[in-house]
Amino acid sequence: MAIYWGDIHNHCGISYGYGSLKNALNTAKNHLDFVAVTGHAMWPDMYERKEETAFVVDFHREGFKKLKEHWDETEKLVADANKDGLVTFQAYEMHSCEYGDHHIVSPDDSLPLIYRNSPAELVSDVGVRALTVAHHIGYTPNYRGIDWNKYDENITPLIEVCSKHGCSMNETAPFAYYHNMGPRDSHNTVKEGLKRGYHFGFVGSTDHHCGFPGSYGDGKLAVIADEKSRESIWDALINRRTYAVTGDRILCDFKVDGNEIGSIVPVTEKPVNIKYSVKACYNIDKVVIYKNYKPVKIVEGLMLEPKETDSSYKFRIEMGWGNNKDDLFEWKGKVSVSDGKILDAEPCFRGRSVLAPSTVTTDGYDDANKIDDKITELTENTVEWQCYTVKNVSPMHPLTSAVVIELKGNPDTKITIDINGHNRICTVKELMEYGYSEHTKYFHSQAFKVHPIITESQYTVSGEWADTVAPKSKDFYHMEVFELNGSCAFVTPVYFK
Q1: Per residue, what are the HEC states of 316-338?
Q2: Which of 277, 224, 296 is closest to 459 using CA atoms?
Q3: In CA terms, which of 97, 225, 329, 368 is 20 to 30 Å from 46?
Q4: For residue 402, with 0-12 CB atoms within 10 Å meaning exposed, 13-18 middle and 19 or more buried, which class applies?
Q5: What is the largest CA-CA distance in the chain?
Q6: Measured at the alpha carbon of residue 39, what is the angle toward residues 38 and 41, in degrees to the nearest 5?
Q7: DSSP secondary structure letter of residue 265
């Protein structure tokens, strides 16, 4: 089976949110395999409208009303976009203080917009194939975080473990919660759900509110499926063959006695054997295999050094910076190689980030992310792309975009890099020693950075680990991967029952 990349929880102007649905779907087509654009639909136990809650209540009611009035049109646009290499799903969201927020996802284009009080009622009454995904579960119980006492894995087989809200894997996971909805709560982590014996798949999505599905650094999910089709990807979702990444598209393979991730395996009397492999996009920091969320195998990335026999390489070209807070800055890039060949190019594109609810005037925001970011050519010798960036949110919050290039060659392979007319020719050996940066103007301008080249020995690992104790009921094994640039992958467990 193959790995496909998607985002099944993101927003635009179809409810409250910004940017047109047409632009959102076009963005998804440019750099994702599948998508569900999610409208905000309901909040059964929303706060009572008082003076202090009036803005929030009115803002949500207006957004829900907008989706209801345009649901038929929204549903048709999503259905019509299921072509030209993009797989689409229908979806909308339920807020809930009692159950935590969930969104419903369906492979059927006739998903009706109905209003119910719980995720279970939604799925049972909607009349088509559907599941719900619990998202930003780490918020305070009864304050839009999940209630594990009311969780039903048959209704909600997938948990969104990372998004713009942060990461909910465990109390000390990277990407803490800093949205105005509050901090991460220890009771509402993924670790707690696993501890209780639940079976669910890990997914990431952006929860982007400005029509840019898959925006880099906000979260994505990988599915392991037979083919890039709606039915095959749906089969992967309902069977939990999923894993989450926070940024880079880290390729992960993890099997327990040959069983794929998400499997629920009968208990045997024999110890199990785990096979794993990781192909990262940056230097590996560590790879950790857990049994019942206790580490049993750790690959230390600091010990991974280049080998003379290495013939595959990766490097990243990152673009952005500058003072263009509102205006988009256009980038055109081209990389060519001689005495070698390009194997792959990964898009790491970001859109404008606008939070909602917001009191900011949003007139004209339909085209906020009308951004045609895409890789325009990919051959064995050349990769070309175009993308657009705006100023970083702060010195600690980037809005840069990047392309990660993998190539085959040797230390003397020549790489010609052209970014907006800034040309340089380097060898693999030179770029292994130093990367470089350049500015488009002499003062506070946009800039780009060519990161140092790393070799396959620094971004790939594989191996086996044999347990010495046979698994018991409720045991589970899973893998987590961390890169030195902060990107992570959280791989769904194999469960024993």
Answers
A1: EEEEEECCCCCCCEEEEEEEEEE
A2: 277
A3: 368
A4: buried
A5: 70
A6: 130
A7: E
Number of alpha carbons in the 13 Å side-chain half-sphere of residue 419: 25
Burial degree of 393 (CB within 10 A; 0-12, 13-18, 19+): exposed
Distance from C-alpha of 317 to C-alpha of 87, rounded to nearest angstrom: 28
97: left (phi over 0), alpha (psi -120 to 50) or beta: alpha
DSSP string, 298-312: EEEGGG----TT--E
Q: State the residue for tokens 């909607």.
A: 126
What does the DSSP assignment read for 139-181? SPBTTTB--GGG--TTT--EEEEEETTEE-SSTT-SS---STT
Question: Could you tell me the sign of the dihedral formed by the alpha carbons of 445, 450, 452, 458, in that order?
Answer: positive
